[in-house]
Write a structure and sequence with these properties.
The chain is mainly β and about 110 residues long. Helix content is about 0%, strand content about 50%. The strands form two sheets. Strands 2, 4, 5, 6, 9, 10 and 11 form a seven-stranded mixed β-sheet that branches. The model has no long low-confidence stretch (mean pLDDT about 95).
Length: about 110
């Protein structure tokens, strides 16, 4: 059974940074492409970033240059480093892989 557990969310001022983590279990982590999505209040879930098993990365346009996705296969964990945060980045952030989703972690950007 695949389990994904996100952490690292919180309240941050505009221009600040946060680092999200997603710990995976129940899969051969190094073989899987990992994704981050987010969902703001009253909006549809939105794609954020992807990292393949070969460390190829892609990003949604609005986060390019500000967010960095990375992975540590030895720890079965994927990360999302978020810099220069904006109020519009406020959302619940989810990681997903192998048709499984985590429970999400809340990110709030506000002064």
């Amino acid at each position: 059974q695949v389990q994904l557990v996100e952490s690292g969310g919180g309240l941050v001022q505009p221009g600040g940074s946060l680092r999200l983590s997603c710990a995976a279990s129940g899969i051969s982590f190094g073989d899987y492409t990992m994704h981050w999505y987010r969902q703001a209040p009253e909006k549809q879930r939105q794609y954020v970033a992807t990292i393949t098993s070969g460390n190829k990365t892609t990003y949604e346009d609005s986060v390019k240059g500000r967010f960095t996705i990375s992975r540590n296969d030895a720890k079965d964990t994927v990360f999302l480093q978020m810099n220069s945060l904006k109020p519009e980045d406020t959302a619940v952030y989810y990681c997903t892989a192998a048709c499984a989703w985590g429970q999400g972690t809340q990110v709030t950007v506000s002064s």
